[in-house]
Amino acid sequence: MNRLGNVSVGGINPIRIMGILNTSPESFYKKTIVTKKQSQEKLIRKFVDEGADFIDVGGMSTAPYLSTLVSEKIESKRILQAIKRIQQLCNLPISVDTCRAGVAKDALDQGVEIINDISGLKYDKKMVNVIENYQPSLILCAFSKKLVTGNQINKTKDLLKQSLALAKSANIPRKKIVLDPAIGFFRKTGTSPFFTKINSDWLERDLLMLNNLRSVKMKQPLLVSVSNKSFIGKLLNIENTSDRLFGSVVAEAMTILNGADIIRTHNVRETKDSVKLVQSLAQKKSRKAYNAS
Known about the structure:
Blueprint lengths: L2 E2 L2 E2 L7 E7 L14 H14 L3 E5 L13 H18 L4 E4 L3 H9 L4 E4 L9 H8 L2 E5 L10 H18 L7 E4 L5 E2 L8 E2 L4 H10 L11 E2 L5 H7 L8 H13 L4 E4 L2 H25 L1
């Protein structure tokens, strides 16, 4: 059985929901940027009340189109304050969104159970050593420091296999690993170091991934994060990220139908409703097909 922290994921388990808590003022989605104690506590309680299974804490935006690099000291400080407040208010497993070893170590020292590395352990050479010492659960995102060309499904699988090999070298069993196809992180150009360069259209790549999620699972649970992302704005011609809620919920529903096991989202309540409705309708459809056979 696969587990992320102390929560079973994938297979016959329910679709899990991960609420996003951004402590970075530079992040692209302003509604979940919470830097003050009171606002963080309010959002944490909201996630608990709305039924989140995890809280994912970020201390630095990794959006490819933003210049957002901050020092490790600043990233750690932001994250550690949020971790303390989450632990005081609830028992939800905490995921820390970082690809830097020092930040991961600081978080793991505080009892964090999950590291969400958008570079798949490839950005910081010291990360594998930290992971080996602490043995957390991992979310591994498809990532390359080099240009990726050719069939994007096959290339994404290859990149994820590389990250699985790094995790294996750190003695992390596959039952503690979740994969992420990196929606929004493959671009022709970018201003941050946290994206994978491709020579094809990024929108086509994202849509290809979303329509073929089962092709990249490789018998691992799959986390998908599409909430308020650029492809929604592009398809619907909505520039303001705060106006992408309806598009986000529909996109999340499609990822569930296509094989996602965990939805990382800014909109926990709306996503929870979407999950419940999609699963109910899918089960009803399956029953009708069975009875007609």
